[in-house]
Write a structure and sequence with these properties.
The structure holds two protein chains of two kinds. Chain A is α+β, with helices and mostly antiparallel strands. In chain A, about 35% of the residues lie in helices and about 25% in strands. In chain A, strands 1-2-5-4-3-7 form a six-stranded antiparallel β-barrel. The longest helix of chain A has 15 residues. Chain A is globular and about 50 Å long. Chain B is of the alpha/beta class. Helix content of chain B is about 30%, strand content about 20%. Chain B is built from 21 helices and 24 strands. In chain B, the strands form five sheets. Chain B has an eleven-stranded mixed sheet, sandwiched between helices. In chain B, strands 1-2-5-4-3-7 form a six-stranded antiparallel β-barrel. In chain B, strands 8-10 form a two-stranded antiparallel ribbon. In chain B, strand 20, helix 16 and strand 21 form a beta-alpha-beta unit. In chain B, helix 9 crosses helix 13 and helix 18 packs across helix 19. The longest helix of chain B has 25 residues. Chain B starts with 11 loop residues before the first strand and ends in a 14-residue tail after the last helix. The C terminus of chain B is likely disordered. Classes of the chains: A alpha+beta, B alpha/beta. At the A-B interface, helix 6 and helix 7 of A face helix 2 of B.
Chain lengths: ~200, ~575
């Protein structure tokens, strides 16, 4: 297994966890849409959390390295450390593609364990997130806090390229409908999506 | 419907409403609508519903966005997102007509569209189906937001009942009236039988409708008026002795003035009830020459003889004694002073009866299919002169029409006469409507083939009973709430119409509704122009060939001018 490969290690129809074989300093970013392209359908989810640390909690990581030394340099000087560390991601499922039909809804079954996890392509992101409807399953997951939702919207807007602005507005309107009882939350998410001018 | 399938013209969707209170339409984001604009939607059975936007409201789904509105420093996205989600614009649309697909007569709206039915702006096809597109009709302008579309008003229906043009000064009333009269004369010139002709008797206070109209506008400042446009179909009378281009002068002899003619001058001449009673008494005692009699410096022997038949007082009798003898001690003197003021006018001649000839000639012209414009020249600023002449002429001409109608069999009934009066409220206010001939004409509708076209700035001053008989109303901008209320009083959907009138622009924008139209419409009224293209368009609308010649003129040439016109023809 390549160090850069990420695989499903825990799965349900609402969320899954995936892990790299080792520690990585550049895992998939918060809010990034990921794809599992194995199983009965393609499953898509948004990164809601990212955690790196020792595999064995009874053997905590001890700080090493000289003053002024970078993390990469310390790792290079102590290659055995990387063998004891791992990076794990939490993902909230936000849609699936079944027989070429994109559905911004929970999949009929969880993604297979140990299936490879990849970054969704720009086209997949735009299809799943069209009209901002991917926010419905996303917001139903308690792990998707304001920062995650804002990052996910921002990321899809980037993937949409020239159609990014219309997507932002459409997603914002969908969000407004979903959060009609929480106007302050809506405001804070939209502020995070588009910073003050 | 997804955004991709949405009609690009769509204004919004129906989200509520009732037939009596109108439809509530949620306006699509990025779309705008104007008060008075036409909107259409589909109802069951392939019918279209045509309505008018009568109100526009800003609404919020809940209190959040209005309690904590986004500040100026908030991201633009927040404002964009809240539009149409947290807040939205709602239109009130009054449904008026149901239109079939197969050319059926438009019917009063009796059905509602379903929820979320798409609402679109009306197009030319909808307007054509809704309005009388069959000729003859008069184009009265473009509906709001539809510059390429023209609204037609049914010619016959417009003039078969009284009509009114209302609006404050400078809104374009005169240009609109000229347009309507131009259409009338154009149409009348082209029909073959006299009975089909509609003619106008215009009391032209400000010299607008005779030779030319001066107006404030871009480019042209003088508009060719009826006499220039229809030299053989219009006759021009003036009150001035030496007026250019006049076909005759209106002269009134003191023997022509009856006490009834003074009733409408109560306000302008400051005549009391007792003074009017005194006038009646003088007429009874002294006969047709009563005004000349009371204007003499000293009571004549004839006057004395008629008052003291058995035992006249000794010595010279003065007017105080005459007044006391008649039972009007103060009022007769007051009446004498006012009659003296009245008879100073250049068109009033003492010791004579001139009016009969004038009436005779005008009636002959009118019943012969020509329209008559009475220009007041410098007397236009003198309301007393205007009211005296308009009332005296109208009363006598109406009597002639009444007699002709009652005498005639149906086939020979006189042609339709439309009397055009300005400052109408002076003639038909609450106190005078009973006495004024104009109140009577309005109330009798088309019984004697005489109707009114009233032009006024203060419709609230007009007797409500008279106003209610005005069939078609052209309403330009009005300032006073009372005037607006008077116009829409008793009309279904009046609250919406009130809003529409209140929003009219200060020039060339009118709400037209009533007998000649199937539903109210706000139009940009026709531009003041001398362009031949506009006249050709008007002729086409009236169902006439391009060639501007009456059938008679085409066959026999223009009729020779009658040389026996009364007064000082110039």
């Amino acid at each position: 297994m390549s160090d850069e490969t990420c695989r499903v290690v825990r799965a349900s129809v609402r969320a899954f966890d995936c892990a790299y074989a080792r520690y990585t300093s550049e895992p998939f970013a918060l809010g990034r849409m990921l794809a599992v392209r194995e199983g009965r359908c393609l499953t898509f989810g948004v990164v809601t959390g990212s955690e790196s640390g020792p595999d064995d909690p009874s053997r905590p990581l001890v700080p090493r390295g000289d003053a002024g030394q970078s993390a990469a340099a310390v790792m290079a000087d102590n290659p055995e450390i990387a063998l004891l560390l791992r990076t794990t991601l939490s993902v909230a499922i936000c849609g699936h593609i079944d027989r070429e039909v994109a559905r911004p809804a929970l999949p009929p079954m969880p993604p297979p364990l140990l299936a490879e996890v990849h970054a969704a392509s720009d086209e997949e992101q735009v299809r799943i997130a069209a009209g901002g409807r991917f926010l419905v399953p996303l917001l139903a997951n308690s792990a998707a806090d304001d920062a995650v939702v804002a990052a996910a919207i921002r990321d899809v807007a980037r993937a949409a390229g020239a159609d990014g602005r219309p997507f932002l507005v459409a997603a914002g309107k969908e969000l407004a409908r979903l959060l009609k009882a929480e106007p302050s939350r809506l405001t804070s998410i939209l502020r995070a999506v588009e910073p003050e001018p | 419907m997804s955004d991709a399938n949405r009609d690009p013209d769509r204004l919004g969707v129906v989200v509520g409403g009732s037939l009596t209170k109108g439809l509530e339409v949620r306006l699509d984001p990025e779309r705008t609508a104007q008060l008075g604009q036409y909107a259409r939607t589909e109802v069951a059975g392939g019918l279209s519903l045509l309505g008018m936007v009568t109100d526009i409201t800003l609404k919020s789904v809940d209190s959040g966005p209005t309690v904590w509105p986004p500040g100026e420093d908030e991201p633009l996205l927040l404002r964009e997102v809240l539009q149409d989600t947290g807040v939205y614009t709602a239109l009130a649309v009054d449904p008026y007509l149901e239109l079939g697909e197969n050319g059926e007569e438009p019917a009063r709206a009796r059905r509602l569209p379903s929820h979320f039915a798409a609402v679109l702006p009306a197009d030319q096809d909808t307007i054509d189906r809704a309005f009388a597109v069959e000729i003859p009709n008069i184009p009265v302008g473009a509906p709001l937001g539809m510059d390429e579309v023209t609204v037609p008003v049914h010619f016959e229906r417009l003039f078969e009942r009284s009509a009114g043009v209302f609006g404050k000064s400078g809104t374009g009333k005169s240009v609109l009236v000229l347009h309507l009269l131009d259409a009338m004369l154009t149409r009348s010139a082209a029909v073959s039988t006299n009975r089909e002709r509609t003619v106008a008797l215009v009391f032209d206070m400000h010299n607008d409708y005779g030779w030319e109209m001066k107006f404030q506008g871009q480019g042209t400042s003088r508009l060719r008026s009826l006499k220039q446009r229809h030299p053989t179909e219009a006759e021009l009378y003036t009150l001035e002795q030496r007026a250019e281009r006049s076909d005759g002068q209106i002269l009134i002899g003191t023997r022509d003035i009856q006490p009834d003619d003074l009733e409408v001058l109560r306000e302008t001449l400051d005549l009391t009830d007792l003074a009017i009673d005194a006038a009646h008494a003088c007429r009874r005692r002294f006969g047709p020459g009563w005004i000349d009699a009371i204007l003499a410096d000293e009571p004549s022997d004839d006057v004395v003889g008629k008052l003291w038949r058995r035992e006249p007082p000794e010595g010279d009798v003065n007017w105080s004694q005459v007044a006391a003898q008649m039972g009007y001690p103060g009022s007769l003197e007051s009446l004498r002073r006012r009659m003296e003021r009245l008879t100073r006018r250049e068109f009033v001649r003492t010791e004579g009866s001139q009016f009969g000839d004038v009436i005779e000639h005008i009636v002959r012209s009118l019943q012969g299919g020509k329209s008559v414009i009475v220009q007041f020249g410098r007397h236009g600023n003198d309301l007393t002169s205007y009211m005296l002449v308009a009332n005296m002429l109208s009363r006598r001409i109406w009597e002639r029409y009444r007699d002709s109608t009652e005498r005639s069999r149906e086939q020979e009934a006189p042609n339709r006469l439309v009397i055009v009066i300005e400052e109408a409220h002076k003639f038909v206010d609450r106190s005078l409507a009973g006495q004024s001939i104009f109140g009577q004409i309005a109330r009798e509708l088309r019984k004697y083939n005489v109707t009114l076209l009233v032009i006024d700035q203060r419709p609230s001053q007009i007797d409500p009973e008279v106003l209610s008989q005005i069939g078609t109303k052209f309403t330009l901008q009005l300032d006073s709430d009372n005037d607006v209320e008077a116009i829409v009083g008793g009309v279904s959907g009046r609250s919406g119409l009130r809003q529409v009138i209140a929003s009219l622009e200060s020039k060339r924008q009118a709400l037209v509704f009533g007998h000649a139209l199937p539903m109210p419409v706000v139009v940009q009224t026709p531009e003041a122009t001398n362009a031949e293209s506009a006249r050709a368009s008007l002729r086409a609308r009236l169902g006439l060939p391009e060639r501007e010649e009456s059938p008679a003129a085409a066959l026999f040439g223009a009729p020779a001018r009658d040389s026996s016109l009364p007064g000082d023809a110039s």
